[in-house]
DNA sequence: ACTTTTCGTTAACATAGGTTAACTTACCAA
DNA sequence: TTGGTAAGTTAACCTATGTTAACGAAAAGT
């Protein structure tokens, strides 16, 4: 799988299914192969100019933004199939992109992609859909930090991850591998690690979900969905 | 101004300046005229299917999403020039769009715009940039609710509004008209109205910013920018 | 002009979540 | 295998923000 070209990957993408004609061949970046990053390495730094667009082939990425006081907020944890870095403005990046687990990324020069999408209908379409979806995910994240308490916020996030991983068969039976530390979870949820720990313990005690040794397991989807007010509509791909 | 066509409006748009050739003429929606909405009226409801895309000509819009428990989060307050509703998926809307002040909106069928952007380079470009900017705004909003306290959160938001309005000359000398109630401000910032009131009072007492009778006035930009950690880079249009 | 909402303001009190710190457990590198 | 660092856990205590409620001042409707 890890010498698969971008074209092959896109063909297997839930959004990109329509991209099967050989009209898609002329773009050289489609022959690209993913680049590998070690866990905890940094791909692109906040404040530096970077004209690449990334597509996750495998692993957990981390898109984060730091504040002056040293605090940080994790904007998203892009997973397989997610597109990152569509800023469309030449200027310093607004966030840092790093690898949480070992990560493999397709890297496409922004200009190449931009001109290709203008000429190639399905590709442009796919990109627009992907950005729009990122927008929905961000919106729901904002709902979480703005208006949900620690319990339902955490529950909501863990359900979202399950749903997003499921699209690629990376979660099954309510179980999935999750390399996040409680510190990272805290920076996603806008909480402290200590409180994340309390919350996770509580969720476990209520037999809703457990998160141990790098694995998440949904124990009672019904209770969890009710607590989180989770509705997966916002994650729809097509 | 209020029988201006969409084409005329786009030509005056900071992003859309390049759209001056008459190749832009063939699309009938460019001849559209904005539709007027009264303050507090609802344009599009969360959960209902709506295939329009909106561009704000004037006024303050409100994009919000409700939770089961009755709480709501305001995602954004789109202003002149902002593009709303690019979901790119046929399905129920994720948020409600309403008018805070009197509002005038260009309304474009999603399909018409999508096909036009594929054929017309500058238009597609403009749209991509607009979405990417919405993304930056959302990201910064998430920073606010996730990692800033009430004071800097409020300061940050009020500075953002000033910057966004300035792009159209709708703010000058640090002063701008702002029709938001404290309740609405609370739903933007993820606070309670009571606490917004305290915070606003505090900011006033510290001679940083005042918000009274529908007008915001920056009293000390320096102190305010420091408190908020405000860097307008994320709002850059070109 | 009068009445009725809505909005802003303030105070007293309550609590979810933050802070610090100590300890344990798991992981990693030599 | 072992020692060291990073991660998870728990407890005691603290504080920023939420809650409720009362009142005055604007707006809005008749």
TrEMBL record, chains A, B:
GO terms for molecular function: DNA binding. GO terms for biological process: regulation of DNA-templated transcription. Residues 32-113 form the Cyclic nucleotide-binding domain. SUPFAM superfamilies: cAMP-binding domain-like (SSF51206), Winged helix' DNA-binding domain (SSF46785). Keywords: DNA-binding, Transcription, Transcription regulation. The lineage of its organism: Bacteria, Pseudomonadati, Pseudomonadota, Alphaproteobacteria, Hyphomicrobiales. Residues 148-222 form the HTH crp-type domain. Signal peptide: none annotated. This is Transcriptional regulator protein.
């Amino acid at each position: 799988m890890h010498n698969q070209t971008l074209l092959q990957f896109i063909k297997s993408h839930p959004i990109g299914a329509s991209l099967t004609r050989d009209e898609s061949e002329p773009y050289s970046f489609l022959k690209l192969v993913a680049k590998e990053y070690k866990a905890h390495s940094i791909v692109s730094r906040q404040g530096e100019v970077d004209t690449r667009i990334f597509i996750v082939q495998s692993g957990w990425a981390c898109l984060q933004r730091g504040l002056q006081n040293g605090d940080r907020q994790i904007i998203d944890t892009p997973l397989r199939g997610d597109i990152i870095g569509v800023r469309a403005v030449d200027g310093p990046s607004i966030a840092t992109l790093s690898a949480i687990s070992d990560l493999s990324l397709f890297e496409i020069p922004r200009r190449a992609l931009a001109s290709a999408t203008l000429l190639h209908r399905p590709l442009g379409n796919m990109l627009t859909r992907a950005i729009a979806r990122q927008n929905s995910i961000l919106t729901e994240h904002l709902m979480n930090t703005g208006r949900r308490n620690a319990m339902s916020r955490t529950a909501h996030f863990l359900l979202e991850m399950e749903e997003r991983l499921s699209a690629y068969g990376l979660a099954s039976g309510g179980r999935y591998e999750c390399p996040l530390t409680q510190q990272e979870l805290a920076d996603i949820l806008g909480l402290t690690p200590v409180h994340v720990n309390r919350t996770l313990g509580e969720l476990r005690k209520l037999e809703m979900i457990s998160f141990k040794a790098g694995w998440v397991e949904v124990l009672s989807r019904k209770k969890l969905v009710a607590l989180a007010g989770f509705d997966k509509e916002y994650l729809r791909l097509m």
